[in-house]
Amino acid sequence: MDHFIMALDQGTTSSRTLIFDKQGRVVSMAQKTFSQFFPKPGWVEHDPKEIWATQIATLTEALAKANLDAKNIAALGITNQRETTVLWDRHTGEPIYNAIVWQDHRTADVCEELKKTHKEMIQAKTGLVIDAYFSATKIAWILDHVKGARQKAQQGDLCFGTIDTWLLYNLTKRRVHFTDPSNASRTMLFNIHTLEWDKQLLALFNIPKEILPEVKSSSEIYGHTATRWVEREIPIAGMAGDQQAALFGQMCIEPGMVKNTYGTGCFLLMQTGQQSVASQNNLLSTIAWKIGGKVSYALEGGVFVGGAAIQWLRDGARMIRTAPDIQNLASTVEDNGGVYVVPALTGLGAPYWDHICPGEYLWDQPWEHRWAHCARHFRGDRLPSA
């Protein structure tokens, strides 16, 4: 009997699959990490094929852990890291370049130039500030830097997608090229008022409409699984960007309800109902979801580095060997000792939107005490409220 719901959670550092019963309890979970590539300072890339491989591997593992098979799954939903950009050959399904990740800011200079002439127009149409965080300049970069890409795009031989679209395309064996409004609204190409790909923005970024996915609602049957790893077709019935999905999952379904998610970054979203609210303080106006023909909007403030700071302490500063080690190091001192860390490892997000700003350490203690106090700050001691 099809008594279970499956969720694919494709994140910045790992892919997960969860299976829920009718009471909303998690009955199985599988997770796999994948490679992070940093070709140059400020560049962050993923291998789209590795993302797909880890996601389908967790799907089969989660089924096996729960002693279930595809006939037990009533429907499948997708949630995903947002803005991360993939372009692939429409006919072969092969990516033409690595996925450019949301954290990547190789196009920051392009964005600074755009701010001089198009800031108000882009914000009015998309609800977004001009930033390398979003997909538009990433798409343009691939088209301009991969040999033959622009010609293929103009001929209709390429597909663009954020990660939801890439997974859906592969799950349906290249039959479906869709996205939902929550993801489309993060591209800087989608008009959040008309709910369409905007012709003026496409012309500005020189992006052919032919490569873009069709925008469906956040909850409908887009297609069915058609892979050799799943022996029975499962309806794929929901898609949303990870932060909007978290807003819905925390039951923020009425205007004024707020959630904050701590993950790779930190993202605070407030549901604003069926009206887009323009921020006067550099927050983003974005689409939360579209369900039953009705669009809900949200205000968002994002910090690019949250949990990723712990990864940096381990892999960059080599202050700890494993993430849990930060607890032991922090416990060696009573407080943060006047040490404050601004983890602007990929610049600052809302409300500053400064990709040039480096991380900073503020301290007045002897060197031998600094790392422990730094750990204490990361664990819980923070700057006083402004």
From TrEMBL:
Cite the SUPFAM superfamilies for this sequence: Actin-like ATPase domain
GO MF terms listed in the record are: ATP binding; glycerol kinase activity
Its keywords, alphabetically, are:
ATP-binding, Glycerol metabolism, Kinase, Nucleotide-binding, Transferase
Please indicate if the UniProt record lists Transferase as a keyword.
yes
The UniProt record lists the keyword Transferase: yes
Query: Which Pfam families did the record assign?
Result: FGGY_C (PF02782), FGGY_N (PF00370)
Name the Gene Ontology biological process terms: glycerol metabolic process
NCBIfam families referenced in this protein's UniProt entry, alphabetically: PRK00047.1 (NF000756)
| The name this protein goes by in its record | ATP:glycerol 3-phosphotransferase
